[in-house]
Write a structure and sequence with these properties.
235 residues; mainly alpha; globular
């Protein structure tokens, strides 16, 4: 039996996914090789907070953003084509927030919620906020762009390309969302080996899978971005 030939579009999508993967792994390799130097530089208070934030943001962008940006430039794709539009934004945000509710309940039940502040787990956030104007605004914009917009949008683009490459016959069976949920768990080390860890992992799967399903339903990606700016890393 002869092998089924790939279409031009399928080959293009395969190439796009490989570009994203290779770019991400290349940055990860560089970061791993110089992790100690990077950490000491970012935590060195003798270096201006804005410069440290910029360095960390560039690294974060390299891990989640560079690959999709290379593809967008090479393919002459607009980010707006991935759901960055006003139509359906409120609905997208509301439904994505609902997807985050199980994680909030889990965090409250395990006494993990001590305060609310977006990006509080990012090293430079508290120091950036304590800096004077306009440094605090500039630093927080860098943080919101790298750890908020691009981390969320990275999942949106990857999921979209996987779904176009491997379309599902069932609306709620979304291969792109599944892959992105697994990526998130592995990246953030949330593989549950205890009951509490398993429940946390399940809550994270609901967030990532749910927000990407919402994006597919509404055609709007702002809900995903809202999650990563205002809720992810905020409790």
């Amino acid at each position: 039996m002869s092998e089924r030939k790939l279409t031009i579009e399928q080959k293009r999508l395969d190439a796009d996914l490989w570009i994203i993967l290779i770019a991400t792994l290349a940055v990860l390799g560089i970061y791993t090789a110089f992790q100690s130097q990077f950490s000491s530089m970012v935590k060195n208070e003798n270096i201006h907070i804005l410069l440290r934030t910029l360095i960390a943001a560039v690294c974060q962008f390299g891990l989640a953003g560079l690959g999709i940006s290379i593809v967008a430039i090479y393919r002459k794709e607009s980010f707006y084509s991935y759901g960055l539009r006003l139509k359906g934004a409120i609905k997208s945000i509301a439904l994505c927030v609902v997807c985050f509710v199980p994680y909030i309940i889990f965090s409250a039940a395990t006494n993990r919620i001590t305060s609310y502040m977006p990006f509080q787990s990012v090293w430079m956030t508290k120091e950036a906020l304590a800096s004077g104007f306009p440094v605090n605004i500039m630093a927080m914009l860098l943080i919101a762009t790298a750890w908020g917009f691009f981390e969320a949008f990275n999942y949106v683009v990857i999921s979209d390309k996987i779904n176009k490459r491997y379309p599902s016959k069932y609306k709620l069976l979304n291969w792109g969302a599944i892959v992105c949920a697994v990526m998130c768990i592995l990246i953030h080390g949330m593989i549950g080996v205890t009951l509490e860890g398993f429940i946390e992992m399940l809550a994270v799967v609901i967030i990532i899978y749910g927000m990407l399903i919402v994006k597919e339903m509404t055609g709007n990606a702002w809900g995903c971005i809202f999650i990563f700016i205002f809720l992810w890393n905020a409790f």
